[in-house]
Amino acid sequence: MPTRDYVTSHIGxxxxxxxxxxxxxxxxxxxxxxxxxxAEFKNTIERLxxxxxxxxxxxxxxxxxx
Length: 66
What we know:
The model has no long low-confidence stretch (mean pLDDT 86). This protein has a domain at 33-66. It is rod-shaped, with a radius of gyration of 28 Å. Helices cover 89% and strands 0% of the residues. By secondary structure, the protein is mainly alpha-helical.
């Protein structure tokens, strides 16, 4: 029959394992969040560049350019 200390130590190991899993999932969530933010930022930059090009074209036409 297992001793009380043996059982208690394995319960503690289970808690450590759960804590490690929670920490890992938390880090993965943060990584995914950063990746999504970077992708959104990249899309925003691309959209701004498109708008700048359109504005430059409109300004050129208004000033008598081609």
